[in-house]
Amino acid sequence: MKFKLFRRSWWIAAVALALVLTFGAQTALASTGTFDVSVYHGINGRSLGLSKDLPVKITIQKDGAPLAVIDNFTFKSRINTQLPAGEYLITVESPEAGPLPSMTVGPVMIPEGVEVRLHARLGAGGVPMIMVKVK
Fold first, then answer.
1. Is 14 among the domain residues?
2. Are the C-beta atoms of 109 and 24 separated by less than 8 Å?
3. Is residue 4 part of a domain?
4. CATH number of the domain residue 32 falls in
5. Overall domain count for the chain
6. How many C-alpha atoms does 36 have within 13 Å on its Cβ side?
7. What range defines the domain where residue 63 resides?
8. Each residue of 69-127: pLDDT tens digit?
9. Phi, psi dihedrals of residue 37, rounded to the nearest 5°
10. What is the tens place of the pLDDT at every residue in 8-67?
11. CA–CA separation, 42 vs 67, rounded Å?
């Protein structure tokens, strides 16, 4: 079963950008040049008529250049790491569903010292989205 991606994908990116810019002004006590990031895949593919694991490929670009590709990131997977501050663009695609524009984050400047949490989940109408929280 295919699912429709609604026009709301633009506001998801706008909300993510606003959150990062609003909370990004906070400074860290110690200057490390990095920020903490955690990524969680919380979408059971069966909700979309796909495989339960719903494997995805996450592509991370920093300052316009490829930084990392995470292949086969599946339902309930989690990553916690630190990345250097900079401008990021994160895209997600699925071998089963194709590109997922509603799950694109950025381009957005992420400063050092913040904590960014990215949680993939289903939004309104069953549209896959990434909830972004910045502390």
1. yes
2. yes
3. no
4. 2.60.40.2890
5. 1
6. 10
7. 9-134
8. 999 999 999 999 999 999 999 999 999 988 889 999 999 999 999 999 999 999 988 99
9. -140, 140
10. 444 454 445 444 444 444 444 456 899 999 999 999 999 999 999 999 999 999 999 999
11. 23
